[in-house]
């Protein structure tokens, strides 16, 4: 399954719900304001690092860049994708759950 | 692969309309098929032909219309959500006794059954919204 999170963890609980309830082995994509979860140096970093053990974690690069961040700013173990990669994630992972 | 897209958020609000558009475009450019784009809740405002963004800003409505033209997309606006928000095509305007309609080219008004059908017929349903 692909889980998508589009809200910042500093603003909403979507990321927490997603990480708590998603089945192991899911792919998790952070996009829109959700990309703030994937950036190094925040209070969520250790939680995301832990999540990479259970899930394949991705962040949408165009949304990182739109917010002044680069691929190097992303936590180790989190992969960046573009929209084409987003489409592949949807195609390859079965059903999509949007944690709105 | 067949994709269906659901848009729950209005244009120029947060980012859902933009994400949905960029994703839909990427799906098509990769050679997949879009079965339908369904506009629900505030998402129906993506279909207003009276939208006038500043000239240096993206025109979200025209962008959908152009993409629909290029790829022959089925852009469906939920009728109940549309009526609540004053989104009407010519038929609905006539039926409700209104003096104008505002549905942009390339969109059509229909019911929730179209969303259910898209969920059944498409291999993937991707939801964008708040």
What do you see in this structure?
The complex is a heterodimer of chains A (100) and B (130). Chain A has 100 residues and is of the alpha/beta class. Chain A has one domain: DsrEFH-like (Hypothetical Protein Ychn, Chain: A, 3-Layer(aba) Sandwich), CATH 3.40.1260. Chain A is built from four helices and five strands; from the N terminus they run E-H-E-H-E-H-E-H-E. In chain A, strands 4-3-2-1-5 form a five-stranded parallel sheet. In chain A, strand 3, helix 3 and strand 4 form a beta-alpha-beta unit. The longest helix of chain A is centred in the middle third of the chain and has 10 residues. The two termini of chain A are 16 Å apart. By secondary structure, chain B is an alpha/beta fold. Chain B has one domain: DsrEFH-like (Hypothetical Protein Ychn, Chain: A, 3-Layer(aba) Sandwich), CATH 3.40.1260.10. Chain B has five helices and five strands. In chain B, helix 1 links the parallel strand 1 and strand 2. In chain B, helix 1 packs parallel to helix 2. Classes of the chains: A alpha/beta (100), B alpha/beta (130). At the A-B interface, helix 4 of A face helix 1 and strand 5 of B.
Give a brief outline of the structure.
The complex is a heterodimer of chains A (100) and B (130). With 100 residues, chain A is an alpha/beta fold. Chain A has helices spanning 14-21, 45-54, 61-66, 83-92, and strands at residues 2-5, 27-30, 56-60, 78-81, 96-99.
